[in-house]
Write a structure and sequence with these properties.
heterodimer, A: 259 residues, alpha/beta, three-stranded antiparallel β-sheet, globular, B: 290 residues
């Protein structure tokens, strides 16, 4: 028997940490953006979150556990979800999105639009896409493949996706707002409110091989760091098999987080 | 009943400087590119382009045809960042109005319903309201009193959409996996023009469309029909064809360098007409196959 645990890569740990974000979601749409989020959401459904509803990213809901990039004739398509319906359903709240921000601050305000002055940006990226509507309507998590102080930054240049302080300012209309977790290549962050103030980011776990200091150094704002930070859990044998043999046999996850 | 068939040039002749033009499709998917190319060849100017943006938005802004872009994103999908959009934004060459995708949908619906606005939760608390000070909120008149964004109608002078198949009267089918907001773009516009991969007789439309659920563009929505085979190129138009990734890559690479861009424009965008463009694309494919 091979010693599987020594072969577990950081990418595998990230996949499981992403999957854990969807734990307890039940029968809603999981909308992962990016490679590791997609693998993680599929893993969650294949194991502890079987009711999660997932699409192929191109307008079809499918059942079963399938590889990244599976074509419609490889899976059981059970629902049609064109973009217009995504926008309708998200306003109903039955969705948990995981997005990839270019900047995020301590309250979870995130930028996917443009770096620098929005009027004439230093670097134009996507535009705010569905970020404003997602974050005010339902649960949001984030995936950051390279944890750095440039991404986890004191202030974001354009708030596309609202965090806890903005939600508090909005009040009643933001009652569906929840930024659940931020998973990075170094650790997992969640949000905690101190004395009723708008919640800020807390170090929830450190991936095996990374350190608390490394995370603090590479974060551009002050994190809440508990005295005892646990390690992110490792994938078990069944999860590893699903990741490696079923969902991502080509190892696409290693392109996002190299071994 | 009117035969609404026309050429891309005849569509462009109905456009005027300063008009607000809505463009269907999404990102680099089923864009009415043959009509966009006809605009690029024209002397139209000062357009406002309203789009779930792809190369349509990038090209019309980079060429100076669009003075203003109204978008939620601009992307080439397989290449996430649209290089010409980046160019015009980073050099301050275009007026930008950025909305959330759902706000954008509410704006199209408001225009289609002939309402001044529709309330939405999307945008509250975000900097969308800060960078667009024209946006206002509205309080629910009911007991809840909830404060919501009053998304203004995205009224369009003209809408341009691309269909898989149409008839000569202006009925059309969207047979791919996503119909996007094309019918709303048509309803939001004073005049809508549909280009299609092929134009068939009304008797054959359902057979060609495959399923009546695809017959979502109706002749009361459309003022003209243009047959443009491969007309969404280089964006995808399933099931007829996928995105021309090699060409899109060449487009994106060229856009990053002024000299290369001038050469790309000269070869592909300053052609005599759409047929000449398609002939150059065929040559490009032959060169790439070697």
């Amino acid at each position: 028997m091979t010693d599987t645990l020594t072969e577990i890569t950081r990418a595998d740990v990230c996949v499981v940490a992403v999957a854990e974000c969807f734990r307890g979601d039940g029968e809603i749409i999981g909308s992962p953006m990016g490679t590791i989020p997609t693998i993680g959401a599929r893993l969650a459904r294949a194991t502890f979150e079987p009711d999660l509803v997932l699409s192929n990213g191109e307008s079809l809901f499918f059942e079963g556990t399938h590889r990244l990039g599976a074509k419609p004739d490889e899976f059981a398509a059970v629902g049609w979800i064109p973009y217009r319906q995504v926008l309708d359903v998200l306003a109903s709240g039955r969705r948990h999105v995981m997005m990839g921000p270019v900047q995020i601050d301590a309250h979870g305000n995130a930028n996917i639009s443009a770096i620098g002055d929005w009027a004439k940006p230093k670097r134009q990226v996507l535009g705010s896409r569905g970020g404003p509507g997602n974050t005010i309507n339902h649960t949001t998590s984030y995936w950051i493949p390279k944890h750095s102080a440039r991404v986890l930054t004191a202030t974001v240049d354009m708030v596309s996706c609202i965090g806890y302080d903005r939600a508090a300012q909005v009040g009643t209309s933001a009652r569906f707002h929840e930024v659940r977790r931020v998973v990075t290549n170094l650790g997992v962050l969640d949000f905690v409110s101190v004395d009723g103030a708008p919640a800020t980011m807390r170090l929830a776990s450190v991936h095996p091989g990374a350190t608390v200091d490394e995370i603090v150094e590479n974060t551009g704002f002050e994190l809440v760091v508990p005295s005892d930070v646990p390690e992110t859990r490792l994938p078990d044998e069944a999860e590893l098999r699903l990741i490696r043999e079923v969902i991502d046999p080509r190892g696409m996850r290693l392109r996002e987080v190299p071994a | 009943m009117a035969d609404k068939r026309m050429t891309p040039e005849e569509v462009v002749a109905q456009l005027e400087d300063g008009m607000t033009v809505g463009i269907g499709g999404w990102g680099s998917r089923r864009k009415p590119m043959a009509l966009v190319r006809a605009i690029l060849r024209s002397d139209l100017k000062d357009l406002t382009v309203v789009s779930y943006g792809g190369p349509d938005a990038g090209l019309l802004a980079r060429s100076g045809k669009a003075r203003k872009l109204v978008y939620a994103f601009v992307s080439l999908d397989s290449i996430p960042l649209e290089p010409n959009f980046r160019y015009v934004r980073e050099n301050g060459l275009v007026e930008a109005v950025e909305y959330d995708e759902g706000m954008f949908l509410s704006g199209l619906r408001a225009a289609a319903y002939r309402l001044p606005f529709l309330p939405t939760r999307a945008g509250l608390g975000s900097d969308i309201l800060k960078v667009s000070p024209h946006l206002k909120t509205v309080a629910s008149p009911y007991e809840d009193g909830e404060e919501l964004v009053a998304m203004p109608a995205l009224n369009l002078d003209v809408a341009l959409v691309h269909a898989n198949v149409a008839d000569e009267k202006g009925n059309a089918a969207l047979t791919g996996p996503d119909q996007f907001m094309d019918d709303l773009f048509c309803l939001a516009a004073d005049k809508a023009f549909v280009s299609a991969e092929r134009v068939v007789s009304s008797e054959d439309l359902l057979k060609e469309a495959g399923c009546f659920h695809t017959l979502v563009l109706h002749r009361y929505m459309t003022a003209g029909v243009v047959e443009t085979p491969n007309g969404a190129h280089f964006t995808e138009c399933p099931p007829e064809y996928g995105r021309d990734e090699a060409f899109q890559k060449a487009y994106a690479t060229a856009a990053g360098d002024p000299e290369a861009w001038a050469a790309f424009e000269a070869r592909f965008l300053k052609t005599a007409d759409e047929a000449a463009y398609q002939a150059e694309v065929a040559k490009f494919r032959e060169e790439n196959a070697k």
